[in-house]
Specification:
By secondary structure, the protein is an alpha+beta fold. The chain has helices spanning 6-18, 22-30, 49-58, 60-63, 72-78, 132-145, 162-170, 194-199, 203-218, 229-239, 249-260, 310-333, 368-383, 386-389, and strands at residues 34-38, 41-46, 83-85, 87-92, 95-100, 103-107, 110-118, 125-127, 151-157, 176-189, 222-224, 267-273, 279-288, 291-299, 338-341, 354-364. The strands form 2 sheets. The protein has an 11-stranded mixed sheet with strand order 3-6-7-9-16-10-15-14-13-12-11, sandwiched between helices. Strands 1-2-4-5-8 form a 5-stranded antiparallel sheet. Helix 12 links the parallel strand 14 (291-299) and strand 15.
């Protein structure tokens, strides 16, 4: 989702600023700490990055047993410029027992009241198995009781037990609920050996990968596994200037920050290096729970012919395939059972992956302010070019009712 369209963002900011009490309300709520209490449990909504980082120490008994990807620092590192942190810290008898990470859509630094929680990669709910349901219930109740939040968008694997928890909590509030079935991250199952993996490929794909690997070997390129962050930073600095599509310094820094928050054994940093020391490609992700998660890849897309055209073909079309084949071989050697690709994938992996079945649950509060925002966005979509209008999808839920047999759309 790209929010760099200046005309669109300027128009929405102008509308938001002129809504009744919008800007003063945002200013006041930013200075408040929002609480929700129920018997022995309590939930606090936290917006401050400084307070979020401090949770590492405050909830040390919780976080010391959780993976790197559920630590407060990693969550903050994932946030893009238009995402403001809005997390729920859940305590039991005064002790931190869980955190549910959410982010709020921001327009030019102004909070919109639209909150996102994405648990599709198990990055949102930081708690123990024992407290998971209670923590999620308390977090959702805190957000739905908050005057700050007008809408929630919660993405979950379709088979997750959390789906029923979200529906049950929503039924206790006056909210409009819609659901959208989605196909989420591609997943590639990994066999016991790389030879077995090659056998799963089509004959043309297998032939091309072997050709690329042979060419790479003949030209003394070598695969660098388990890179440290400094080496990865150097590689990305070189490659970001040679990519077909421009990468902003903010995007590069976000990837580097995420890598820095991972421990050495959890990082999935690898690259392909030429004999002269130039980097051909680099990849970033993490390893946990029997899987590798591929987040981003940087390729040298500059076309440099060696006279027979082979290098042109390899660099422009097949670098991604080449590096991923080495990465897959490494993961298999290390005993991992799957490669997940964050968001989407292209190239040869498209034909051999299965998408994670997911669902996004839309909860919208019937406040005058939020209804006004939604009405303006719907009107704007009819008048704007489709390319720009599609960027307003985050405001209005799909016009489809929840699946049959579930709770009613409006409780």
């Amino acid at each position: 989702m790209n929010f760099n369209d200046k005309a669109l963002s300027s128009a929405l900011v102008l509308v938001w600023k002129h809504l009744p009490l919008a800007e003063p309300l945002a200013d006041r709520l930013l200075k408040r700490t929002l609480h929700f209490t129920d018997a022995f449990w309590s939930a606090e909504i936290v917006f401050s990055p400084t307070k979020i980082r401090a949770l590492k120490e405050e909830g040390s008994s919780l976080f010391r047993d959780l993976p790197d990807t559920l630590q407060p620092g990693f969550f903050l590192a994932t946030l893009e410029r238009y995402r403001g942190p809005c997390i729920a810290v859940v305590k039991r008898l005064g002790e931190v027992v869980g955190v549910v990470y959410g982010w709020e859509m921001m327009l030019r630094g102004i909070p919109t009241g639209c909150l996102y929680v994405d648990e599709s990669l198990e990055l949102a709910v930081a708690t123990t198995k024992e407290h998971r349901e209670s923590v999620l219930r308390m977090a959702l109740s805190a957000w739905l009781n908050s005057g700050r939040i007008g809408a929630l968008r919660i993405t979950l694997p379709r088979e997750s037990r959390d789906v029923d928890t979200v529906r049950e909590v929503a039924s206790a509030y006056s909210v409009q609920r819609s659901e959208e079935l989605r196909e989420l991250h591609p997943i590639l199952s990994l066999p016991p050996s790389y030879e077995d993996f090659e056998k799963t490929l089509g004959s043309n794909t297998r032939k091309h990968i072997r050709q690329y690997r042979g060419y790479s070997q003949n030209n003394n390129q070598h695969y660098v596994r388990n890179m440290d962050v400094c080496e990865f930073r150097t590689a990305v600095a070189m490659l970001s200037e040679k990519m077909k599509f421009a990468v902003t310094s903010e995007e590069v820094q976000r990837i580097l920050d995420m890598a820095s928050e991972l421990s050495v054994e959890k990082r999935m940093l690898a690259g392909l290096r030429a004999e002269d020391g130039e980097w051909v490609a680099a990849v970033m992700g993490w390893k946990e729970s029997g899987r590798g998660v591929l987040v981003d890849q940087f390729n040298d897309d500059m076309k440099r012919s060696n006279g027979d055209g082979i290098e042109v073909q390899l660099r422009s079309n097949s670098t991604s395939t080449l590096l991923r084949s080495f990465l897959i071989e490494q993961l298999i050697d290390e005993g991992f059972e799957a490669l997940w690709v964050y968001g989407a994938t292209g190239g040869f992996l498209t034909r051999y992956t299965q998408r994670l079945p997911g669902v996004t649950i839309y909860l919208d509060r019937p406040t005058l302010l939020w209804r006004t925002v939604r009405a303006i966005a719907e009107l704007a979509k009819r008048r704007l070019p489709k390319k720009i209008a599609n960027k307003l999808d985050w405001i209005n839920p799909p016009k489809t009712p929840p699946p049959a047999g579930n709770l009613s759309e409006t409780a």
